[in-house]
């Protein structure tokens, strides 16, 4: 399993100070920056475009940018996010007309690719694409808005995804997004996640560094 990664979701950042918030959260110990891209079509919210990713790069952000596309269709805009500076690009299988084509397109754009599964979306397709993906993202809330509570049934799904990945022997990260907090991150890690998206739990805290430190301590307990 990979080393644990904490991906701070800028959906919960102060948009008037986005560059500064992002720089500060990385200085406090976050590893990745998670960018939730919503189109007010696939999900009922409208957030970031490639221009925001580019702005973060221009601001001097060098950490991996983990771009989660909650948009439909996905193919047209993937090259724009790649050119803007994305490192990981993940998408929902329901939003692609041809999943293999979309995964190949992401790799052609020199980014790492992945699939995102909503709480109610089956993992059936996962085993068919294990040789084409670098990351699996499980949603533990219904996508669209930050600050939701973790859906408990996702724990079993997370364990199952971990079994599939381990059995495959492929180099794939297992990411979780939604309701990740200090008080549940140990259980999430024990279920098999190695990459943890946290938004309001970090950006809503008075002290980013202390919160991230506590998260890492809980993950370490899970891995002992």
Helix content: 25-40%
Number of domains: 1
Widest sheet: strand ordering: 1-2-3-4-5-6-7-8
User: What is the name of the CATH superfamily?
Assistant: Aldolase class I
Gyration radius over CA: 16 Å
Residue share in β-strands: 15-25%
Estimate the global geometry from the Cα principal axes.
globular
- At CATH level 2, the architecture is Alpha-Beta Barrel
**CATH hierarchy, class:** Alpha Beta
Q: N- to C-terminal separation?
A: 13 Å
What is the total tally of β strands? 8
Individual helix count? 8
The topology string of helices and strands comes to: EHEHEHEHEEHEHEHH
Main beta sheet: strand number and arrangement?
A: 8 strands, parallel, barrel
Question: Low-confidence parts, pLDDT < 50 over ≥5 residues?
Answer: none
In the CATH scheme, what's the topology name? TIM Barrel
The assigned structural class equals alpha/beta
Task: Provide mean pLDDT, rounded.
Answer: 95
